[in-house]
TrEMBL record:
It holds the Pfam family UDPG_MGDP_dh. InterPro entries: 6-PGluconate_DH-like_C_sf, NAD(P)-bd_dom_sf, UDP-Glc/GDP-Man, UDP-Glc/GDP-Man_DH_C, UDP-Glc/GDP-Man_DH_C_sf, UDP-Glc/GDP-Man_DH_dimer, UDP-Glc/GDP-Man_DH_N, UDP_ManNAc/GlcNAc_DH. Belongs to the UDP-glucose/GDP-mannose dehydrogenase family. This is UDP-N-acetyl-D-mannosamine dehydrogenase WecC. It comes from Clostridium aceticum.
Length: 406
């Protein structure tokens, strides 16, 4: 039996995949409301294909509880928040989960940590904890780091078809973990050591951050001289060895905007490029604000409540608002006492910011300038309804005449 600890964005779909493939799974989370909801057959977040997978897993007998189970395989997928001021990882949930596992596990249990951690975290925080409890690593318990790679919006497909990394101290334990994941993962599973697994995960997200920063810097250069950045990227990408990403209003989510900071925090003298990329991406909400100001001036709009921001989620077709460019933008506005901008996102059903609308038409009726920050399919399918408005399209989804771009 596998006990999956932490049933959030990663733990839940992973637990469901194991259950669907016929393995006995118990999902544990300390959040009673969440367990209550899952036990009643109600999902806690939206994701393509998740409903179906959930149904299959429930039919196969997956159980949800707040209790840690006595078993020999654990998958730990608890959150790893980062401390904004120091840009360092806060390992408290991982440490606490490891400790509780040690309270109940069978001798020789394998602890697989899936949560993203900064390189070196297992040496720094987890091994000493285990040794401090009197457990001998490699005998009483075995450690594995198997960082996830799935992308919100396409998680279920990617769980099955992405290649995976398994880092272990011992090749036999690595092989065992690999076999376990191959119950649902149809792609290559690379077995390596724990430090390489930690580092490769953070490197993957940093690579994407740096490449998005390049696109964002191009957007700023092109804006300065009134060139069309999208056209330039489209042409440049015809070159067989060029593949520039898309500029946008900023980089959100709990991964790409966070992981590079771990490298900057640990290697401050060696991370010039990575730090600059982070700064460029973090500056994009301010760039959008500058664009809003230009348009307001040009059209003599003085009332901020005539501005409507579309999108609170950090990217299209998800309901996750962590580090979202819109939240960053509202924070910048707040710092400058610019209150009253209206906000709408069809995926966010609870009110999380001031002046948030729950109805799209009401929202559109009350604004003069629509700022598109998140390219949900919903807005792509409703562009007809916004044709008469001034539009700042930070995601390049509208091709009407007169639409302002980044
Ligand atoms: N973005 C751009 N321009 C682009 C692509 C993305 O501005 O061309 C923005 C998005 O709008 C969003 C942010 O970047 O705000 C991040 O979005 P994303 O779709 O690139 O990635 P995430 O954060 O949803 O998921 C990433 C993925 N990592 C990589 O692609 C290297 C995913 O595979 C990881 O599993 C995930 O981080 C994670 O959990 O670490």
């Amino acid at each position: 039996m596998i006990n999956v600890i932490g049933l959030g964005y990663i733990g839940l779909p992973t637990a469901l995949m194991f259950a669907k493939s016929g393995i006995e799974v118990v999902g544990t989370d300390l959040n009673e409301k969440l367990i209550d909801s899952l036990s009643k057959g109600k999902l806690t977040f939206e994701e393509d294909g998740l409903e179906e997978l959930f149904k299959d897993a429930v039919e196969k007998g997956i159980k949800f509880t707040t209790e840690y189970q006595k078993t020999d395989i654990y998958i730990i997928a608890v959150p790893t928040p980062y401390i904004n001021s120091s840009k360092k990882l806060d390992p408290k949930y991982v440490i606490s989960a490891v400790n509780t596992v040690l309270d109940v596990c069978e001798k020789g249990a394998v602890l697989i940590i899936e949560s993203t951690i900064s390189p070196g975290s297992i040496d720094k925080y987890v091994r000493p904890e285990i040794a401090g409890r009197g457990f001998e690593l490699g005998k009483d318990v075995h450690l594995v780091h198997a960082p996830e790679r799935i992308i919100p919006g396409n998680m279920i497909y990617e769980l099955e078809y992405n290649s995976r990394t398994v880092g272990a101290d011992d090749s036999l334990v690595g092989k065992k973990a690999k076999e376990l994941y191959s119950s649902f993962c149809k792609s290559e599973i690379v077995v390596t050591d724990i430090r390489s697994a930690e580092m490769s995960k953070v490197v993957e997200n940093t690579y994407r951050d740096v490449n998005i920063a390049f696109a964002n810097e191009l957007a700023k250069i092109c804006r300065n001289d009134n060139m069309d950045v999208y056209e330039i990227i489209r042409i440049a990408n015809k070159h067989p060895r060029v593949n520039i990403l898309q500029p946008g209003p900023g980089v959100g989510g709990h991964c790409i905007s966070v992981d590079p900071w771990f490298l900057v925090g640990d290697y401050p003298d060696l991370t010039n490029l990575i730090l600059t990329a982070r700064k460029i991406n973090d500056s994009m909400p301010t760039h959008v604000l500058g664009r809003i100001r230009d348009i307001m001036r040009e059209h003599k709009i003085t009332d901020i409540s005539k501005i409507g921001i579309y999108g609170l989620a950090y990217k299209e077709n998800v309901d996750d608002t962590r580090e979202s460019p819109t939240l960053q933008l509202l924070e910048r506005m707040d710092e400058h006492l610019a209150f009253g901008v209206k906000v709408y996102d069809p995926f966010i059903k609870e009110r999380i910011v001031d002046h948030q609308f729950m109805n799209f038409e009401d929202f559109i009726n009350e604004i003069e300038l629509l700022v598109i920050i998140t390219a949900h399919d919903h807005i792509k399918n409703n562009l007809d309804l916004v044709k008469g408005k001034l539009i700042l399209d930070a995601k390049n989804i509208c091709d009407f005449d007169g639409v302002y771009k980044l």
